[in-house]
Specification:
Elements lengths: L10 E4 L7 E4 L1 H4 L2 H15 L6 E5 L3 H12 L2 E5 L9 E8 L2 E8 L8 E9 L3 H11 L5 E10 L13 E8 L1
Parallel strand pairs: 3-4, 3-7, 7-8, 8-9
Antiparallel strand pairs: 1-2, 5-6
Helix pairs in contact: 2-3
Length: 175
């Protein structure tokens, strides 16, 4: 299986979560052992020589790929969660969504100034959640931050809402 063939393992769900939206369901890719291995190896290869010390996975689908990447890169895994889900002292960042405001949290001791951080989520749509996560991690003053997605929906121009001073990669792109 080749990288572009991974697209055929992703299920399109029309009119979800609302009419007119085509949801790219990555659960069908990650249930396929060969596709999961190929996806994991390909993303890990992008970052294997960059000294990543922490991978931040965004709730909830970012936990899947993020924890695999942390393992493959010999890094720690940090969950970025919705409010009230982390048991210790947190730092938080609020951000605007289509229908209101949401918040993302990290443990206050999750990132240090010596860390090289990879922010990971399954899919880039509008970029709001990742931008908030980036700003939250940046406020913790790590050495470097990278951003990665498995899938990018280019027609939504989510990259335009992400920092220009950060390397952003996507394994698969849909127009």
């Amino acid at each position: 299986m080749e990288i572009e063939e991974l697209k055929r393992t992703i299920r399109d769900v029309p009119d979800f979560p609302s009419k007119g939206i085509v949801f790219r369901d990555l659960t069908t890719m990650i249930k396929d052992p060969e596709a999961l291995r190929l996806m994991s190896d390909a993303v890990a290869d992008m970052y294997k020589d960059l000294g990543i010390t922490k991978v931040v996975g965004i709730e909830s689908r970012g936990f899947i790929g993020g924890s695999i990447l942390a393992y493959k890169l010999g890094a720690g895994f940090v969950p970025a969660r919705k409010p009230g889900k982390l048991p210790s002292v947190t730092v938080k960042m609020a951000y605007a969504k289509e229908y209101g405001v949401d918040t993302i949290e990290l443990h206050s001791d999750a990132i240090s100034e010596n860390d090289v951080v990879l922010l990971h989520d399954d899919l880039l749509a509008t970029g709001g959640t990742m931008n908030a996560c980036y700003n939250l991690v940046k406020s913790m003053n790590p050495k470097k931050i990278y951003i990665n997605f498995i899938v990018e929906l280019e027609a939504l121009h989510g990259r335009d809402n992400l920092p220009k001073d950060c390397e952003i990669t996507s394994l698969l792109k849909y127009e």
